[in-house]
Specification:
Layout (H helix, E strand, L loop, with lengths): L7 H8 L3 H9 L6 E3 L2 E3 L2 H11 L5 H10 L10 H5 L5 E2 L7 H12 L8 H14 L8 E2 L15 E12 L7 E9 L3 H16 L3 H7 L3 H17 L1
Parallel strand pairs: 3-5, 4-6
Antiparallel strand pairs: 1-2, 5-6
Helix pairs in contact: 4-8, 6-7
Length: 235
């Protein structure tokens, strides 16, 4: 098997699910793949795009499975949010009134780490992802990110967070407005999916989004996120 493709067994391990369950979904056309010489093969990039979309509807338990199966050596014992988010990468309030200005401002916030090497490249990659399908949820939260990792454009994976004083059109379902933004910039797909799964669980935590929306400043927002993240780990 080429290292550029997953076999059925490898995909099951990658997703943290039973092989028979995955095979049923594949045969029903629910998972993108192709047969070569009678064996199923799956391209990692196609699987990442498919899984990213599927995760929007996952329960906490399903997200926890994805999170566990995508842990890396660097995040083996700690939440990726605890490792990749810092006080300096949070801006509340975030003074931006349009989708583009939000993305530009969030990249400036991320740039405080000195890990953003090619901001124009990252901005273009994030805008391309948004053109395919908005990363906004119906709860007023968006998680902008590149469609594919751009490792040459940043030094280390990181997360930035910002909240605008009022909601703006960002492509949410039913034309809802968005005011909370988590910018996710990862150097590899495994870390990317790990972060998305963890953020998804955090956003499902009862009361978390409402509390975050009421946080008056960056420090309060950071402390609230860290506390909620620690509760997920402990729970």
């Amino acid at each position: 098997m080429s290292r550029d493709w997953y076999s059925l067994d490898e995909l099951a391990r990658h997703l943290g699910r039973d092989r028979r369950e995955i095979e049923k979904l594949v045969n029903r056309g629910r998972i993108p793949g192709r047969k070569v010489a009678g064996d199923w093969q799956f391209h990692p990039t196609e699987i990442t795009h498919w899984l990213e979309q599927e995760m929007r509807e996952y329960t906490d338990r399903e997200l926890a499975i994805i999170e566990q199966s995508h842990r890396t050596v660097e995040h083996a014992t700690a939440s990726p949010i605890a490792v990749l988010l810092s006080r300096e990468t949070i801006q509340v309030p975030l003074e931006a009134r349009t989708k583009r200005s939000v993305l530009e401002s969030m990249l400036e916030v991320a740039g405080r780490t000195w890990q953003i090497w090619q901001p124009a490249v990252l901005l273009a990659a994030i805008q391309e992802r948004e053109s395919v399908l908005s990363t906004a949820f119906d709860m007023g939260v968006a998680i902008p990110h590149p469609r594919n990792p751009v490792p040459d454009a940043l030094g280390q994976s990181l997360i930035a967070m910002g909240r605008t004083p009022s909601g703006i059109p960002f492509g949410a379902p039913n034309r809802g407005l968005t005011d909370i933004f988590f910018l996710v910039l990862c150097r590899d797909s495994r870390t990317h999916l790990h972060v998305l799964a963890r953020l998804g669980r955090l956003l499902q935590k009862p009361g978390f989004v409402d509390e975050l929306r009421l946080a008056p400043d960056s420090d309060t927002s950071y402390d609230l996120i860290c506390r909620a993240d620690a509760e997920l780990t402990a729970g």
